[in-house]
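Tutorial handout. Part one gives the primary structure; part two gives the three-dimensional structure as tokens.
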Amino acid sequence: SKSFVFPRAPGVWAMWRLSCAVALLWHDLPGIRSLSLDDLPANVKEVEYAVRGEMDQIAQGLAEQLKKENHGLPFDEIVPCNIGNPQVLGQPPITFHRQMLSLLTNPELQTKNLYAKDVHDRARNFSEATRFGAYSHSQGIPLLRQQVASFIQKRDGAKVGVVDAESVYLTDGASPGVKTSLGLLISGASDGILIPVPQYPLYSAAITNYGGTAVGYYLDEAKGWSVSTEEIQKAIDRFKVDHPNGRLKAFVAINPGNPTGNVMSRKEMEDIVRLCDKHKLVLLADEVYQENIWSDRQWESFRKVAGEMKSKVEMISFHSISKGYYGECGLRGGYMQIEHIDPKVAEQMYKMVSVSLCSNTLGQAMTASVMNPPIKGDASFESFEGERIKILESLQRKSVLLAKRLNGLPGMSCQPITGAMYAFPRIELSKAAIAAADEAGKKADLFYCIALLNATGIVVVPGSGFKQEPGTWHFRITILPSEDKLPALLDRLEKFHRDFITKYGNSEL
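Part two.
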């Protein structure tokens, strides 16, 4: 058989090229595409998530430029201080949990006695409960949910009440649980969700996406980002004026605070529980940084506080394996746990999580394992405890160093970092700097952060991405760079900041 030969006549080639050009042009005409930007829901287009926003996109472009031999940039690496991602900045994983995970992913290794006995025992116990390559129960593997329930029980004490494994939902990190909960709470713009300002932008983004109204209550920066019932009441009053027929549905409490690095006092927590009881609000307790405490203040869960108050407040709590001393962000594990939620609502919650079949099973296993680490007497305890203490002590030293260095800069102030993984310093920007930002079409703190990135390779997040009190400017920076690199990084930040002030003047000008 003869192969087909395309005609070589010039006229034929010209017509073919013309037809291709017309097809491409036709496809790009407005109204021709099946899905264009104009077709997207307004809620989707209004969503903003600053942690992976413009700063992150600029950083990715610079990272590509750095791969060139003569890149021409004044730095040799991008340092991602914009996100709480410990292992990307060099924090090692906890050996016990990773060894256990390796046995789950390679079951034939379970018979080879490669690791300590307690590692093999846990892997064998988990493997007997399921096949990790198979879908699980939509709430999570029952044995692993029971493990998480046991952790919560031990953490909060027996006086608060028994934790039913049926109240636990294993999730791919804390974020899916937050979004599921908000999806159940929001019907439209008349539904308000009280969120702290500053806040983690997952909340404002999800509320916007679901068409609800974010109702911000301001934290008191001068008092260590504390929560006051007076500020919350002001937020409630504003909502009632703006939405006379609206209904406040839930209260978001982030403790320890993100981005603010604060830890709530017992009084603050009790005030919040009483307020939720009074206004019939569901309490959404974001507690993913509960292992990251850098002060003498004792951290307590909202479940424990409410239980000891004999409150029946409806509550959904969130936790994750992404933070703490374990920092397993990429393995995507976490849980939400419900208290005093109507069983009929819980049925709907189960229905919604079942739409995604289940969370990833290895993340479920890591969540159960992380929440139940080796204890004294176990074969791996000494090595585990050494790793845990080393990481936490390093994080504490870095939290002190970071706040001290930031407070030493002119026109910058930083509250003590008492919890979580971030500093949220306030920067005083001059009229000239604000005017330059306006001319560039940027918010003033974003303008500052872009200039910092372009000069140093340090990626931070502007405070406007978290919401902040009008007329103030901030940025969020993590405490996560390794101790051997953090001082030099702060030297670069200091030089940039002083150069910026020299160029634009201080805040009085």
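Part three, for discussion. The CA atoms of residues 16 and 489 lie 57 Å apart. The mean pLDDT is 91.
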